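Narrative summary of target 7.
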Amino acid sequence: MNEVMKEITKPQVEKQAAPVPSDNYQLSFIGQYLFILLLLLSAICSEATAQEKKMTRKEKEAAWRAERLRKRAAEERIEIHNDSVQYMQAIAALKNGSWALEASNVTFNNGASNFVTESTNFISLNDGTATVQTALDNSNVYSPNGLGGITLTGRIGNEEMKIDRYGNVYYSFGISGSEISATVSIVLTAGSNQAAATVSPNFNSSNLSMSGYIYPYNNAGIIEGTSGYY
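Modeled conformation, tokenized:
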């Protein structure tokens, strides 16, 4: 009985709770983690720098040339696409009888060649009426057309158009008016809207040549002066 009472009255030993990490311990752990992370990042950057340094001067030049060629090829693809679109538009404009050849260069029968303003030097056709205009000196308001040249108009006839196997377009027509009687011959270069034209008078040999680009008449930026002589 006494042994039982001793067992009952025996002091109970309380279980001790697990120690809680202090704030200093947690901060130390975070610091170690950040330190390891910085070491890893530093190793990665060092590797990338080492790889870059391994490229020789010739290799860098080769890489630069390859990138330049890639960009140039992309630009050429865009240019070819744009040229093809303008080429088809020019053919359609010729077939529809509504176009303008804006000239950047004019050559006269004596061989004199002049770089000119496209908007005031042109050959055009619209609604069956063709116009041939030159304007070599925009400051000369006393010229027949008020733009430094002449503007001649007439009705057209005898249209002919053919395309060779390379895609070059040959187009010609006659123009007849009170101030002009001539044959106009145009060659449209395959794959673009670039063209060259020759105006051959029927009663003399004073040919006029123009080179430039053909656009649909409604898209052209031409400025027409006063037609005829005075």
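The CA atoms of residues 76 and 176 lie 42 Å apart.
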